[in-house]
Design brief:
Strand order of the largest sheet of chain C: 6-2-1-10-18
Radius of gyration of chain C: 24 Å
Number of domains of chain B: 1
Helix content of chain C: 25-40%
Radius of gyration of chain B: 22 Å
Largest sheet of chain B: none
Shape of chain B: globular
CATH superfamily of the largest domain in chain C: FAD/NAD(P)-binding domain
Structural class of chain C: alpha+beta
Distance between the termini of chain C: 42 Å
Strand content of chain C: 15-25%
Shape of chain C: globular
Number of helices of chain B: 9
CATH class of the largest domain in chain C: Alpha Beta
CATH class of chain B: Mainly Alpha
Oligomer: heterotrimer
CATH topology of the largest domain in chain C: FAD/NAD(P)-binding domain
Number of strands of chain C: 20
Number of domains of chain C: 3
Chains: A alpha+beta (about 250), B mainly alpha (about 250), C alpha+beta (about 650)
Order of helices and strands of chain B: HHHHHHHHH
Distance between the termini of chain B: 75 Å
Number of strands of chain B: 0
Chain lengths: ~250, ~250, ~650
C-alpha cells in the first residue's frame, strides 16, 4: 500500500518543531505501524537524511515504551492496542497519516516523537511501593488475599506506564496512571499500612506535573490495557480520606 | 539523564500552610469541593423547580396564586425559631458560598489544566468518548453563571424587570416571560444548564469516589433522568407563558 | 589461566549456608563507605540495586531505557518456579534442583543450581509482600500451575504478565531507594566500556543517549545485569534495544565468556510475515496444552487447513513422541518444526510455520473454555496476523528467545575480572544447555535479591578505607578517549548501507548456521562469512547524525558492531562442542532416531573463552563439570 505521512520533526527540546511530509510507497499491509516507520527510516537514511526518532522496545505491547498520537488519537485508531501492535491493515491505501508526539508539560519532547516520561518515575518514587526490605518477608501464604481483591489489584496492575492517558486527556491529567498504581497496592492487605500516606504522596507528586481530572473518560478509551476509570474514583476517595486520616495520625490540630 | 534534571516542576513539594488551605490546594480536593457544592446546587435546582411547578396550580378560591403562597411560606420558614426571611438568607448564604467555591475551584483548575499542556496538539484531535457536555463544562458554566446573575436581577431584585413588584411572584413571572427575548434567553440558558448538570451529576460520583460495581451503571441513567426532569420543567415555564397557556 | 569456581566445601545442601557464614562481611555502619555500580534494571539489576541500597551501600544504577520499568524482563508471560510445595505434590528443593539440572542437559554447575532451588521460596515470599498480585485460590492462598519439564505444580503466576508484575515489584523497591537517596539513577544512559585499574573493575564509561555526553563513573565494584544476546539473530523475541554491548565490552577487557552457543529457540512464536519484520512475538507455551501441532503430509500443499482431510495431516510430535506428544521440551519441539519446514511442508503463505490447531479442543471443551484459558493470546494473535484462531489453526514457528551462555562467573557471581559481577541472563551460570520454562524470572531475582547482596561483601570487605579510583585518573581518561574514538569512527564511515541492513544479514547467517541445528561445515562457513561481513560493516555502514544529540542510529551501530564479534564466538563455541546437548544440536551427534546425543566423556565442561583480539582465535579455558548428586542420563521423551 502507498501512504503519506505527516510527521512532527523537532531536533531538540528547545528547537521549534514542524510537520514534515513523507511519501511512503510500497508498505506491506502485514507490517506493524512501527515497522512501517522502520522502513521509512531506512529509506531516509539511504537518502542521507536523519531518521525519525521514536521510542519502542518490546514491540509486543507490554513495556510501555512506544506511544504516538496517530491521526489525533493516542496509540491510533484500534482500541485496547499499543502503537507497536497496531498494524497497517487498519489503514487504507492512499491514507494521509498524521503523527505527533505525546504533548503535556509533564512529558517534554526530547526529539521528534520521543518524549521524557520520567515524571511517572517520580510519582512511583513518591509512594508507589510497599516497604519490604529484601529478606524481611513472612511466608507468602501467611498473607491471605481474597481472590476478588487479587483480581481487582491485577486489573489495575496491568498498567504499562505508556502515558496514553495523559496524552489523550483534554486536561493533560495523569489520573489513570496514578490511580492504577494506587489501586494495585491499596486493594491488597499488604498495602494497608501505607495506604493513606501512599495515596497522598503520589497524588501530590502527580499534581506537580499534570492537570486535573474532569471525568471525560478519554484516558480509559485510549488505554491499551483498558484500565478502568473506576480506579480514579477509588483514588479520589482514598485521597480525601487520607487528608483527614493523615492529619489525625500526625496529631495536628491547626 | 539523571533523576533530578528533568520534568517541569510546577509547585513546591513541602507545603507548610494551615490545614484547610493546604487541603484545598490539591486539585483532587478542588474537584471534591466542586462535587460537594455541585450536589448543593443540584438539590437547590430540584427544589427550585418543584416550587416553580406551583405556577401551574393557579389561584386558590380567595384569588391568591399558589406560587405566591409558596413564596410567603419560604419567607416565613422556621418562624418563630428564626426571624422572618432568616431561613431564606441562610439558604442564600450557603448558595453564595458554594458559588464562590465552585467558581474559584473551576477557575483555578482550568488555569492549571491549560498549564499542563502549554503546547497544544498541532494536528486535529479525535475524541473517543469525551462528549459535548464534558468538553463544554467551562463554557456552559460561565453562561449559566451569567444567566443566574440576570435571573436574580430579573425575579429576585427586579432591576431588569420594569413591572417588578416585590413578593408578587406570579405576576413577576408572567411579566418577565412575556418578553420573547427574555423567554428565549431563559430557554437557552436552561438547555445549557442541562448540559452542565448532565456531566456534573455523573461526574460528581467520580470526584467524590462514590464508586461501586453495584450502582456504577446507574450513574449515567441518574444523570439522564435528573437532567431531563429539570430541563423539561424549567423550559416549560417560559414556554407556557410565552404561548399564553399560563396567564 | 586456571578457573576457580570457588564452590564451597561440604554436602550440597550445606554449601550455601556455610558459604554465607564464611564470606567476609561489611558492618552496617561501613556499608555507606562503598560505591557500587549496577548496569541494567531488569529483574536482576533492579532487585540487586534495591537490595544493595537497602543494605546501606551507595548505588548508582544505569539503564538505557527511559525508566527502569521498561526492561525486557517485563515480557515474560508464564510464571516463576519455587519449591513451596503448597500443593503437597512432593516438590522439594532437591526436585527443583534435579529438574533444572536435567532440563539443562547436565551442562550446569550442581552447586549453583542447588542454591537457586534453595532461595526460590524466599523470592515468592519477598514478591508477595511487595504486593505482586499473584493468582489466588478462593480461600486466599496462592495458586500454582504446572509447566513444561516438571511433574509438580510449582509455578506462581500473575495472569499472563508474571514478568511484568515481578519487574514492577523490583522497580518499586528500587524507586523507594532512589527517593531515599541511596540509589542514584541514570536513565537513557548506556554503558559503553568498563574501566580497569590494576586488574580490578573500578568503573564504567557511559554515553548519555539524549545529549551524547560521554561520562565516567567510578565505584568499588561493578555489577552487570544487562540481559541476554538473542538479538544477535536480528529476528528474536527480544526487545528492540536488548544488546550484548556491556557484557561484550567486559569480555574484551578480560572477562571470560562461557558457552556462547547455548541459545534457546522457543517453539511457539508467530512466524515471520514479511521481510520488513522487526521482531518475533512469542505466544505462551501453555498453548501446547490444548493445541495440536501438525503439517500437511505432502510437500507444497496448497489447500487451506480446513480442507485438508485427517489422512493428509501429519501430527508429527504425537507420531514421534507418543508419551509426551505436543508437550515435549522446547528444544525438541523447535527442532522438529524446523525439520518439517525444511522438508517443504511448512504452512502459511511463506511456508514457514506449522499449525497449532485448537479445533479439537474447542469441540471437546467448548469455545468458552478455550476463550477463558487463552482469550488474551488469541486476541493478540489475531491483532498481529489478522486471522481468527478459533476458526483457522494458528501458525507458529520457533524463535530465538533466551541465551543460556554469558559471562563466566564463579559461585559468588564474580567474573574473571575482580570486582566485576554478572547476574541474571547476562551470566552463564544456572541453566546449562537449556532453560526450563518459568526459571528465568527465578534466576534473575535469586541473583539480585538473595545471592549477590551476600557474596559481594566478600570482595568489598578488604577494600574498607579505600576510595574509588577518581574519575580524573588516567585509566578513566584513556577509556573515555577510547569511547570517543569508537563513536567518531562509526560516525565517520559514511558508507552506503544502514545498520539494520547489516544486522539483518548477520542474523540470517546465525539463523542458518548457528540456529536450531548446527554442523561442522555450516559453522565453518559462518566463521568465514561473519568476519567478511564485519569487514564490510566497518567500511560501508552509514550512521547519520552526530554524537551530541539523541541519535538512535548511533546507538544501534555500536550494538551491532559488538554483535558481530559475539556472533563469531557463538559459531566458534558451537564448532568446538562436537556433541548435542539441550538447545545445542550438532547434526553429527545424534541417536539413530535423530535425537540429541551428549558426549559426557569429552564435553562435560563449561567452555569459557578468553578474548585475544578482534578476528583472533580466543583461548578456550575449560571448567570441568562434576556431578556428585545426580546421575547423568540421556533425556528421553518417547
Amino acid at each position: 500500500m502507498n501512504i503519506t505521512l505527516r510527521v512532527w520533526r523537532q531536533d531538540n527540546p528547545d528547537a521549534p518543531g514542524r510537520f514534515v511530509e513523507y511519501d511512503a510507497p510500497d508498505i506491506e499491509s502485514h507490517s506493524s505501524f512501527l515497522e512501517m516507520l522502520d522502513v521509512v527510516n531506512e529509506r531516509l537514511t539511504d537518502q542521507g537524511e536523519e531518521p525519525i526518532a521514536f521510542d519502542s522496545d518490546c514491540r509486543e505491547g507490554i513495556c510501555g515504551m512506544c506511544g504516538l498520537m496517530i491521526n489525533g488519537l493516542a496509540h491510533g485508531p484500534q482500541q485496547g492496542t499499543a502503537t507497536c501492535q497496531l498494524h497497517m491493515r487498519k489503514f487504507e491505501d492512499g491514507d494521509v497519516i498524521t503523527i505527533e508526539p505525546w504533548r503535556a508539560a509533564g512529558f517534554p519532547i526530547i526529539r521528534d516523537l520521543v518524549v521524557d516520561r520520567s515524571s511517572f518515575d517520580r510519582i512511583i518514587e513518591a509512594g508507589g511501593y510497599i516497604t519490604v526490605p529484601t529478606g524481611s518477608a513472612p511466608d507468602a501464604n501467611l498473607i491471605l488475599v481474597p481472590k476478588p481483591a487479587a483480581d481487582a489489584a491485577m486489573d489495575a496492575a496491568a498498567c504499562i506506564g505508556c502515558g496514553a492517558c495523559v496524552a489523550s486527556c483534554p486536561n493533560g491529567a495523569a489520573q489513570l496512571f496514578v490511580a492504577a498504581k494506587v489501586a494495585n497496592l491499596n486493594l491488597l492487605p499488604q498495602g494497608q499500612p501505607e495506604r493513606w500516606t501512599r495515596v497522598e504522596a503520589m497524588v501530590d507528586e502527580m499534581e506537580r506535573y499534570f492537570g486535573s481530572c474532569t471525568n471525560h473518560g478519554e484516558c480509559e478509551a485510549a488505554c491499551p490495557k483498558r484500565i478502568s476509570l473506576d480506579f480514579i474514583a477509588m483514588m479520589n476517595r482514598d485521597y480525601i480520606k487520607a487528608k483527614f486520616k493523615n492529619r489525625r495520625l500526625a496529631g495536628q490540630r491547626s | 539523564m539523571t533523576t533530578t534534571d528533568k520534568g517541569t516542576d510546577r509547585g513546591s513539594a513541602n507545603r507548610r500552610r494551615p490545614w484547610a488551605i493546604e487541603f484545598y490546594s490539591s486539585a483532587v480536593v478542588k474537584k471534591w469541593v466542586m462535587a460537594i457544592t455541585g450536589i448543593i446546587f443540584l438539590g437547590y435546582v430540584f427544589v427550585h423547580m418543584l416550587g416553580n411547578l406551583k405556577l401551574y396550580l393557579g389561584p386558590d378560591p380567595t384569588g391568591v396564586f399558589a406560587i405566591d403562597h409558596y413564596g410567603e411560606w419560604l419567607r416565613e420558614l422556621l418562624e418563630p425559631f428564626l426571624p422572618r426571611v432568616g431561613a431564606l438568607w441562610i439558604i442564600r448564604a450557603v448558595l453564595a458560598a458554594s458559588v464562590v467555591l465552585h467558581i474559584h475551584a473551576a477557575y483555578s483548575l482550568t488555569v492549571a489544566n491549560w498549564k499542563a499542556r502549554p503546547v497544544r496538539y498541532q494536528s486535529p484531535r479525535e475524541y473517543l468518548v469525551a462528549n459535548y457536555a464534558s468538553r463544554t463544562m467551562r463554557w456552559s458554566g460561565v453562561i449559566v453563571g451569567a444567566f443566574i446573575v440576570f435571573h436574580l436581577m430579573d425575579l429576585t431584585i427586579g432591576t431588569v424587570n420594569p413591572d417588578f413588584v416585590a413578593g408578587d411572584v406570579h405576576a413577576n413571572l408572567i411579566a418577565s416571560f412575556s418578553r420573547p427575548v427574555v423567554a428565549i434567553f431563559y430557554i437557552v440558558a436552561n438547555l445549557l444548564l442541562g448540559l452542565h448538570i448532565f456531566h456534573g451529576t455523573w461526574s460528581l460520583f467520580q470526584s467524590i469516589g462514590w464508586n461501586n460495581p453495584r450502582f456504577n451503571e446507574w450513574r449515567r441513567w441518574l444523570a439522564w433522568v435528573f437532567t431531563a426532569v429539570i430541563v423539561v420543567a424549567n423550559v416549560s415555564f417560559p414556554l407556557t407563558v410565552l404561548t399564553g397557556l399560563v396567564t | 589461566m586456571q578457573l576457580d569456581a570457588k564452590i564451597p566445601e561440604g554436602p550440597i545442601q550445606d554449601k550455601w549456608d556455610s558459604h554465607k557464614f564464611n564470606v567476609k562481611l561489611v558492618n552496617p555502619a561501613n556499608k555507606r563507605k562503598y560505591e557500587i555500580l549496577v548496569i541494567g534494571t531488569g529483574l536482576a539489576g533492579a532487585s540487586a540495586a534495591a537490595t544493595l541500597g537497602e543494605l546501606g551501600y551507595n548505588v548508582t544504577v544505569i539503564t538505557y531505557h527511559d525508566s527502569p520499568r521498561r526492561a525486557h524482563s517485563i515480557a515474560a508471560q508464564g510464571g516463576i518456579n519455587a519449591t513451596k510445595n503448597y500443593h503437597g505434590d512432593g516438590d522439594s528443593v532437591f526436585r527443583l534442583f534435579y529438574d533444572t539440572l536435567k532440563g539443562g542437559d547436565y551442562r550446569s554447575r550442581e552447586a549453583n543450581v542447588y542454591r537457586l532451588a534453595e532461595v526460590s521460596s524466599d523470592i515468592i515470599d519477598q514478591c508477595t509482600a511487595q504486593g505482586i498480585p499473584f493468582a489466588r485460590e478462593y480461600g486466599g492462598l496462592l495458586d500454582n500451575r504446572s509447566f513444561g519439564g516438571a511433574q509438580v505444580s510449582r509455578t506462581f503466576y500473575a495472569r499472563g504478565q508474571t514478568g511484568q508484575q515481578l519487574l514492577l515489584g523490583a522497580y518499586q523497591a528500587l524507586a523507594r531507594q532512589i527517593k531515599l537517596g541511596k540509589v542514584k539513577l541514570y536513565a537513557r544512559t548506556e554503558m559503553l566500556d568498563i574501566v580497569l585499574h590494576e586488574g580490578r573493575a573500578v568503573g564504567v564509561i557511559t554515553r548519555d543517549l539524549v545529549t551524547g555526553e560521554i561520562r565516567a563513573h567510578s565505584a568499588h565494584a561493578v555489577v552487570l545485569a544487562t540481559g541476554g544476546y538473542a538479538n544477535a539473530y536480528f529476528l528474536s523475541t527480544m526487545a528492540m534495544a536488548s544488546n550484548a554491548t556491556a557484557a561484550w565490552r567486559a569480555h574484551r577487557k578480560g572477562a571470560l565468556f562461557a558457552n556462547a552457543s547455548f541459545t534457546q529457540i522457543h517453539p511457539t512464536a508467530i512466524p515471520q510475515s514479511d521481510d520488513t519484520q522487526s521482531k518475533l512475538t512469542l505466544m505462551s507455551e501453555s498453548l501446547r496444552n490444548d493445541g495440536r501441532i501438525w503439517v500437511p503430509k505432502k510437500e507444497g500443499e496448497e489447500r487451506p487447513p480446513g480442507q485438508i482431510p485427517l489422512d493428509d495431516r501429519d501430527y508429527y510430535l504425537e507420531r514421534k513422541y507418543p508419551a509426551f506428544g505436543n508437550l515435549v521440551p522446547r528444544d525438541v519441539a523447535s527442532r522438529n518444526a524446523m525439520t518439517v519446514v525444511e522438508e517443504g511442508r511448512g504452512v502459511g503463505s511463506r511456508k514457514n510455520g506449522v499449525y497449532l490447531d485448537f479445533a479439537e479442543s474447542i469441540e471437546r471443551l467448548g469455545k468458552a473454555v478455550i476463550e477463558e484459558r487463552y482469550g488474551n493470546l488469541f486476541e493478540m494473535y489475531e491483532r498481529i496476523t489478522d486471522e481468527n484462531p478459533y476458526e483457522v489453526p494458528m501458525r507458529i514457528y520457533p524463535a530465538p528467545h533466551y541465551t543460556m551462555g554469558g559471562l563466566w562467573v564463579d559461585y559468588n557471581l564474580m567474573t574473571t575480572i575482580p570486582g566485576l559481577y554478572s547476574i541474571g541472563e547476562a551470566n552463564f551460570s544456572d541453566h546449562g544447555a537449556n532453560r526450563l520454562g518459568a526459571s528465568a524470572l527465578m534466576q534473575g531475582l535469586a541473583d539480585g535479591y538473595f545471592v549477590l547482596p551476600y557474596t559481594i561483601s566478600d570482595y568489598l570487605a578488604p577494600l574498607l578505607g579505600t576510595q574509588p579510583v577518581p574519575t580524573d585518573h588516567q585509566v578513566f581518561a584513556e577509556a573515555t578517549q577510547d569511547v570517543h574514538d569508537r563513536v567518531d569512527r562509526l560516525l565517520s564511515v559514511n558508507g552506503g548501507r544502514t545498520v539494520d541492513w547489516f544486522h539483518r544479514k548477520l542474523g540470517k547467517i546465525l539463523e542458518t548456521h548457528v540456529g536450531m541445528s548446527r554442523n561442522e561445515l555450516g559453522l565453518q562457513k559462518a566463521l568465514r562469512e561473519i568476519p567478511a561481513l564485519r569487514e564490510e560493516y566497518h567500511n560501508d555502514v552509514r550512521v547519520p547524525g552526530e554524537n551530541e544529540s539523541f541519535n538512535q542510529s548511533l546507538e544501534k551501530a555500536g550494538r551491532v558492531e559488538d554483535f558481530f564479534e559475539l556472533a563469531e564466538l557463538m559459531a566458534l563455541d558451537a564448532l568446538n562442542r562436537r556433541e548435542s546437548c539441550g538447545g545445542h544440536f550438532r547434526e553429527e551427534s545424534q541417536t539413530p532416531e535423530g535425537e540429541a546425543l551428549r558426549n559426557d566423556d569429552d564435553y562435560a565442561y563449561v567452555a569459557a573463552w578468553e578474548f585475544t583480539g578482534v578476528g583472533e582465535v580466543p583461548n578456550l579455558i575449560k571448567e570441568p563439570l562434576e556431578f556428585e548428586y545426580v546421575a547423568l542420563a540421556q533425556r528421553s521423551y518417547k
